Amino acid sequence: MTDRQGLVFPEGFVWGTATAGHQIEGHNDASDWWRFEQEGKILDGTKSGACVDYWNRYEEDHDLMVKLGYPAFRLGVEWAKIEPEDGRIDGAAVERYRKILQSLKRHNIKICLTIYHWVLPQWFAAGGGWLRDDAVKRFLKFAELVVKEFGEYPDIWVTLNEPTVPTSAGYFAGEFPPEKSDIGAFLKATEALMRAHAACYKLIHDNVPGAPGGGPTLAGIAHAYQAVAPYGSPGLAAVFENIMAKFYAFFSFKAWDRILTAGSLPFPFLFKNLSALKDSCDFAGVNYYTRYSPRFDSSLRNQMFVDISSVPEGAETTQMGWEIFPQGFYDTLMYVWDLYKKPVFILENGIADDTDARRPSYTLEHLAKVHQAISDGADIRGYFHWSFLDNFEWKHGFSKRFGLVACDWDDPKLERRPRPSAHMYSEVVRENGITPEIVRKYAPDYAGKITPGTGA
Questions:
Q1: Contacts of 42 (CB under 8 A, 6+ apart)
Q2: DSSP string of 25-40?
Q3: Higher per-residue confidence, 407 vs 241
């Protein structure tokens, strides 16, 4: 897979881009996140509003994907649009989603469809959200509609996106809706999401006999993975940081990995009858951006004396303040492959960079690590770059730009402007790999870092 021309990926490797419904569609006004925004809780003071209006401009965006040569697209469906009021299905929204999926098929773009990406209908959230006694039952009713209405279209199914984020940020840290800080609520919400995934996975396989065009049905979770290492403070602080690094990795992804591979969980997860979760994935879904380095800080009493946002001195960071750490991507991919021994799909990887100064080299560095993992035996089937378009970046609003394609939310025309990195990614897709010419053209600072035979 490596030759004198650079790094070549396996034949049939899936190249795509990714987004989420609430972040690009606009006017998701029956949702809990919409309410959260109206209360002025977005850091840059913005509200999602019309976003970049993918809801109405999807044909234009799909045309642009074809023009750029992007053969796959990850998107989501919004529960709040399909069921804006308890028990009332919005038929027009269902038909709009059908038209969007049909448009992707007409454009010969493979579909990766996410059923839940953090956002809930306000009526569901107001009744307790994932703490409701009937939470799994109600979610499954929505998922059943999605599967039965749209089951013929997706090539890849994602039941839940990063389920540890809405539970930890929403029910433990109090940063996302519903803004709770309660370990009991966190554990109950986690159990609900675990059971929701297992039921949704079975639902998909009971109703979808195979992928479009042949092949098996593929369903799984998009997990948030990070490289995790102690910050490295001296003295007793180092002992604390080592403990907290293990603690963070466990709650961020290792607990979910254990339940999906072994069907059981250690303390403090004492849920019973979770055997249905064992092997409830056809692939391992990886979202990777950064390394976390927990640092002891005696002033952070409300955060268990841990600064999770610290980065090692001298480390390069993105606009999100996240450390750029490609080696962690390789380590994560090998960890996931060794644990699951199932095909791996990278469902998110990207960088907030409004100038596009660092995105080309960031992307090439991380893709080289993907190639290295493949060369070392990992069965990695695809890569979806986050994101296709600039979008509403949750609590950061519109201030963080992840898009290969630029779009200013306050531009009345919402003009789509492919960045240089978008054209670079087009060439990577066309070549099915990284050539020396691509490196010299788009990321000369990266020249010489591709070593034939290792991909590193």
A1: 36, 395, 396, 397
A2: S---TTBHHHHHHHTT
A3: 407
> What is the DSSP pairing of strand 417-418 with strand 72-76?
unpaired
**3-class DSSP state for residue 417?**
strand
Question: pLDDT tens digits, residue range 28-83?
Answer: 999 999 999 999 999 999 999 999 999 999 999 999 999 999 999 999 999 999 99
CA–CA separation, 291 vs 331, rounded Å?
Answer: 11
Task: Write a three-state SS string for 88-123.
Answer: ECCHHHHHHHHHHHHHHHHCCCEEEEEEECCCCEHH
Do 416 and 64 contact (CB within 8 A), yes or no? Answer: yes
Query: 403 near 390, Cβ under 8 Å?
Result: yes
The pLDDT of residue 338 is 97
pLDDT score for 456: 40
116-142: average pLDDT: 98
Beta-carbon contacts of 228 under 8 Å, excluding residues fewer than 6 positions away, are 245, 248, 249, 252, 291, 292, 293, 294
Domains of the chain are 13-226+271-288+316-420 (3.20.20.80)
Distance CA 224, CA 284 (A): 11
The torsion angle over the Cα atoms of residues 354, 360, 362 and 368, rounded to 10 degrees, is 160
Pairing between β-strand 417-418 and β-strand 405-406 as defined by DSSP bridges? antiparallel
